[in-house]
Design a protein that fits this description.
This protein is an alpha+beta fold and 85 residues long. It has helices spanning 4-13, 34-37, 48-55, 62-69, and strands at 18-22, 41-45. It is extended.
Length: 85
């Protein structure tokens, strides 16, 4: 990937803790200042399958937090969608 430094800076600004990068870019980390890498968990991945496995890994509080934000919806629920006149 290009712009690794900028992507890591954006991750920090977005309060992201874990960043997945292609294994091929792991060598580029030596060029990134430690102050940018500090506080980030940077994991090099081999392929998309590994990326998805890590990205979709359930966080212990994820389900509990999501239930607070998004109420359970059943197929019987309906929603009105406003239409412009």
């Amino acid at each position: 990937i290009g712009g690794l430094k900028e992507k890591l800076i954006a991750a920090k600004r977005g309060l992201i803790e874990t960043v997945l990068i292609p294994e091929e870019n792991e060598k580029d980390l030596v060029e990134i200042p430690d102050e940018i890498k500090k506080g980030l968990k940077i994991k090099a991945v081999k392929n998309v399958k590994e990326s998805l496995s890590l990205a979709l890994e359930a966080h212990p509080n994820f389900v509990k937090d999501q239930q607070k934000i998004v109420p359970e919806i059943s197929w019987n629920d309906t929603a009105e969608v406003p239409h412009s006149a």
